[in-house]
Amino acid sequence: MKSVGEAMAIGRTFKESFQKALRSLEIGAWGFGCGGKFGDAAFTDLTEIRARLARPNPERPFFVRYAMLAGLTEAEIFDHSKIDPWFLRQLRGIVDLELALKAAGKTVGTDLLRQAKEAGFADRQIAHATGMAPAAVYSQRNAAGIKTVFRLVDTCAAEFESFTPYFYSSYGDESEVRPSAKKKVMILGGGPNRIGQGIEFDYCCVHASYALRAAGYETVMVNSNPETVSTDYDTSDRLYFEPLTLEDILEIYRTEQCVGAIVQFGGQTPLNLAADLEAAGVTVVGTSPASIALAEDRQQFKDILIELGIRQPVNKTALSAEEAYQAAEEIGFPVLLRPSFVLGGRGMFIVYGMDELKSVVREAFDVAPGKPVLLDKFLEDAIELDVDAISDGETTVIGGMLEHIEHAGVHSGDAGMVLPPHSLSPDLVDEVRRITHSLAKRLKVVGLMNIQFAIKDGIVFMLEVNPRASRTIPFVSKAIGVPLAREIRPPYWSVKESVFPFSRFPGAPVALSPEMRSTGEVMGCDDDLGMAYAKAQMAAQPALPVAGSAFLSVKDRDKDGAVAVARDLASLGFNIYSTSGTAAAIEAAGVKVIKLGKISEGARPNALDLLKNGQLQMIVNTAAGMLPRKDENAMRSEAVLRGVYMASTMNAARAAVLGIRSLREHPLTVSSLQEHAKVLPPKA
């Protein structure tokens, strides 16, 4: 298994359900053709089509369409793909409707429009095929009586009245939704789990539903993810299994006669819809789309920081690759590339030279077409800090400050974190607090807000503000013992550690970067910081070793740090192995070290040999460039395969030493969250 999430769609026909499911995946597909990703001009290379049909892959459904458009028969497609002929006939029906829409153009008739809608075509798909505007398609079909209706999935099988129904859209004569007279608020979920957007946002949606219900509102949840608590039929008053697209959301909003919609709890997906929803007449509850745009647009945000006198890394905005090259030369390497309006660090890169920049710049622009890319001077070895806060537009409360274990440059979703901060002075904490309050007020934040800071040489730099729920909200809420509501500095340590899918993708770079790769996270709590980190590693796996041998190979800039780590590990009884460069630095400091040959030079024995023989229990390896070298990645992959603890940053190595010492010197104890909460300050 390699998937990290899934979407669910319900319809009255397979065609309708299938197209809705493709839209729900949020991969850029509008459906099975007619615009969007994979939906434009046909792919005509028959050799490639046959190869892609024969081997299961995420894009195979779209290559079925390409095959049909290229003239392959259903029998030929079956021979290559072994997809059941019934499904192929259904997909052929969708393709035939696409061709009919294109042939009809702007003169498309009512019967064909009805067939298309009943087969799951969205208005913008029909618009793309016919050359009409989506608004014109909507007007024409409504005038012809082709209106969205909602059907009930009866959780009581008609045996008795159902009080926990959920709904799906379709086309027909009668809707089974009966709106009540109570005020209703819509909550937009996050869609399918994926790297960068997962269950942590669902936590916020669920708690929003509970809070609204307690305040006397009916809640209308819209989501397409069957794996979440938000799509349990009893979490909200009304549940709609629908794609999170403008058309689908507006139909539900109008049908339910909602008084507003909340977009800030479901991650980037609903946030990106905020402006269009407001333009269509939806009341966006909480932070306004204008404020969201201020924070998300890199240039506008830069102007606000200048206005407030808040430091930020030297940066420039680029709208093209050529502008990016020029900006990088003016800023000076290393440079961090950051696209606008993305989640999970998609398209973000740290580049150390022009060749690296040229190799990735196109990807950075492709992530958010038409949007600017910001280039920051990368602050090497800076301490990164996440702050989660809540505001009503005037009063702001900080729920938690989380200090990253790794230095700046590792995505916050991948970084280990400690709450409360363990290395910041009171003055720095006060400065962070002041900036948080001033930004929340200037941006007119109403609801949750996440801010990311970098601290270098005692100076606080602002990295970015997200006027929405962050993925650390569940962690913070559990660490402070209450849903995010007030600032608490617990008298114990909470460590967040991430879980990675590297073992599922052999050969892929085993590295941390600004682009998120983790698929989950764990939490460790203890009165001792080292033990809290050790517990987090036990949960995330692999656990920290308490004895054995460690291999260290680091870039030149990390040699001093490697010496300190080697000295500490040696004092704990570990054997130290290293390659020549790192070994020389360790040996010069008076620490005994065993030299190994380099994998790239074919020397034996090397670290890979020792890993395969079970002779290494810990790896410390920091890469000099954007990604680990081929030999470094071979070693890292082997460590992942064999469950050997590996630190790819010096901060992680130092934290590991702290954890190992705690495991050796203190007994492992367990306390429940409730027991930890007993020592927290009383609620106001």
Write a structural description.
The structure is a single chain. With 684 residues, this protein is an alpha/beta fold. Helices cover 39% and strands 18% of the residues. It has five domains: 31-146, Carbamoyl Phosphate Synthetase, Chain A, domain 4 (Orthogonal Bundle), CATH 1.10.1030.10; 151-285, Rossmann fold; 314-377, Dna Ligase, domain 1; 383-537, ATP-grasp fold, B domain (D-amino Acid Aminotransferase, Chain A, domain 1); 542-665, Methylglyoxal synthase-like domain (Rossmann fold, 3-Layer(aba) Sandwich). The chain is built from 24 helices and 23 strands. Helix 11 (268-279) links the parallel strand 6 (260-262) and strand 7 (284-285). Helix 19 (559-571) runs parallel beside helix 23. The protein is globular and about 85 Å long.
Number of strands: 23
Indicate how many domains the architecture comprises. 5
Radius of gyration: 27 Å
What would the principal axes of the Cα set say about the shape? globular
Q: End-to-end distance, in Å?
A: 47 Å
Judged by helices, strands and strand pairing, the structural class is: alpha/beta
- Low-confidence stretches are none
Largest sheet: 7 strands, mixed
Give the overall pLDDT as a whole number: 90
Helical amount among residues, as a percent range?
25-40%
CATH class of the largest domain, named Alpha Beta
Question: CATH superfamily name of the largest domain?
Answer: ATP-grasp fold, B domain
Give the helix tally. Answer: 24
